[in-house]
Structure prediction request, 394 residues.
Amino acid sequence: MIDFWLAAGLLLLIALSFLLIPVLRGRRAQREEDRTALNVALYQERVAELQVQQDEGVLNAAQLDTGRAEAARELLADTEGVEKPRESRLGKPLPLLAAFLVPVLGVALYLHYGASDKVELTREFSQPPVSMEDMTRRLERAAAAQPDSPEGLYFLGRAYMAQDRAADAAKVFERTVALAGRQPELLGQWAQAQYFADNKQWSPKVQALTDEALKLDPKEVTSLGLLGIAAFEGQRYQEAIDYWNRLLAQLPPQDNSRAALQGGIDRAAEKLKESGGTVAQKTGMKVRVDLAAEVKAKALPTDTVFIFARAVSGPPAPLAAKRVTVADLPITVELGDADAMMPQLKLSNFPEVQLVARISRAGLPTAGEWIGRSQPLASTTTALQQLTIDSPDQ
Prediction:
């Protein structure tokens, strides 16, 4: 910060030089003018002395003329090279006043419109935090300096959650969603913070947030984990197992949280057995999805592909779904109860299903550009199914 103010001060000195140089030049001109006036006065005094001497008879007329000519030559020699004084239209007070006001106004305008707080924050963030509280304070100042930055608010919300300040985190995530849009990950973080802020009481608001997040992205990990926690707390152990299995499928093999998550699944299974229930066996259908040649020529690698199974006789909502991109095709996926969109709509609850794959450039699961459908199949089918996206989506 000191370097910044030194640089600003140097720039102000340069600006002041443009104002003060004319004033200094004016003073120099004044000195030259004063010297010229003195020389003229001396000339007049010399001529007067010569006139007195001529009146007293000391000098004759010729000597008087010679003396006057000599005095005139000396005056010309003294004033030679002196510039004609220039009169400033602005006068001297105005440049001096401007020289005083420039730094004052410059500092005042910078403090009002400038970004000294952001400069200080940049300096602070260049140093590692000494504690979690220190990091949170920095993030709070960053959020205050940039209230329209969703990234800063997101990290502040995560910091609040790490400090068990769920109520503050919920408010911050709500602001983040308002700025960045209703993205699945943000909705999941907001739902999680709201759940803990409400003392682990499930509410319609939390349910709506998790439903929206999973509708946009069935793999949204925070929502899956939260729904599993809520189900376990509500002694709905099979639901907890299903949600956590879906979450487990999204985690990479080297993820350190896999062991803890598997431990939660095992505890839920034990609780279910203690209550007299049995753990439902995972059922799944394997399907290989590819593109027809004419669709491959038109689809973009970044286009979203929704692969799902829906009941032939039943609700139109997908029973199980996966989300990939055109760049991932061809791909083989497994659809099962762990991929259920809603706990009450599981693949194993319906005897006959249809497999569907849809390309949606807008990322909408309900409408797209191209589609592929299978014939009705038993939900217990274990053989690998081939599905080709080959038709315009009507």
Remarks:
- Residues 284-392 form a domain with the Immunoglobulin-like fold (CATH 2.60.40).
- The longest helix spans residues 2-55.
- The chain has three domains: 2-113, 148-274, 284-392.
- The longest strand covers residues 352-360.
